[in-house]
Amino acid sequence: MKVGGVHYRSVWPGDDRRSVHAIDQTRLPHAFEIVRFTRREEIERAIRNMQVRGAPLIGASAAYGLCLEMADDPSDAALDAACRSLLATRPTAVDLANFLEAMREALGPVSPADRAECAWQRAEELADASAASCRSIGEHGVKLIEQLCEGRDASDPVNVLTHCNAGWLATVDWGTALAPIYLAHDRGIPVHVWVDETRPRNQGASLTAWELGQHGVPHTVVVDGAAGHLAQRGRVQLVLTGTDRTTADGDVCNKVGTYLKALAALDNGVPFWVALPETSIDWSLRDGVAEIPIEERDPTEVTWISGCDTSGRVVDVRITPEASPAANPAFDVTPARLVTGFVTERGLCAATPGALSRLHARP
Ligand code: MRU
Fold first, then answer.
1. Same domain, 221 and 303
2. Cβ(56) to ligand 1 under 6 A?
3. Among 108, 129, 150, which residue terminates a domain?
4. CA-CA distance, 41 to 214, in Å (whole number)?
5. Between β-strands 341-344 and 158-162, what pairing exists: parallel, antiparallel or unpaired?
6. Alpha carbons 175 and 137: distance in angstroms, whole number
7. Which residues of the chain have pLDDT under 50?
8. Residue 195 parent element (H or E)
9. Which domain, by its residues, includes 22?
10. Which residues contact 155 (CB under 8 A, 6 or more apart)?
């Protein structure tokens, strides 16, 4: 996608094959900065502190992290240790495990002397495939927006509510939930996005709003609690989110707060769709509420907030009493019964047990 007219991916290899570049998401929306990594440990730190974040992007970044490791030490022991260490950076998004598994499958049979070359090649293939999947999600998902547009006045856009950031920043390119929105906008379908701010880290307010603005898509940022009210007043025609891990039976784990959007959508007859590439499916799990590991992040993400002051300086301020403890579960699970359907790179399907595996070849 484009920033100031220049095409960027969220992560990409350096021409020297000794470095990896990424957009620093902790600096947006106030500054657009590129970070350069030369060691696998730096990529691990970037995943943990969320300079790179979003399920497919974490996976692609980890694959490139493995490339840096293989350029340094291509031994079997280093391959094993690097995979373990990269996998431990964040627990919830299954894309991390799926990308690392694909890298390991490619690198395992290759002799150490050829591993670095093979790693760069495979990581690039995976990144390209991930971007292509997201583009296909856009092509399939735009049909939902087209249908909702039928019979509406041109001055009355389709209002889509989204949570967190499931745009191109969260993936290698295009995004998941935002891909259909970009295509709808490009095709002249009037679309407006309600952007949940997504406390505590404000991925909606900081990242989704920035992305949509760069692309010229009409949008409005709302507090997380506003979704129910907007749905009750008929001001939301579609809820569309991404996911970090979806089980074989269709339970969806996504940024904390997603479950409440699904409840509000159901109560108000608003369709709730989830966009996902195959790399976000965990075929080994069925019951998401019981089985998906939910990341608990540092409570200071709740007690402190970062923003730009009137002089343009980015500052951190505390928003809670010093003595008040805080908790920070980063994801929640929306049971399949609350999900209208899935948009994947293979098409649209219901959120019923078996529906995903009929669309995708289960490994
Ligand atoms: O904690 P984050 O910002 O990595 O969480 C990201 C999300 O919850 C996204 O909605 C999810 O990764 C799907 S987007 C491709």
1. yes
2. yes
3. 129
4. 31
5. unpaired
6. 9
7. none
8. strand 191-196
9. 2-129
10. 190
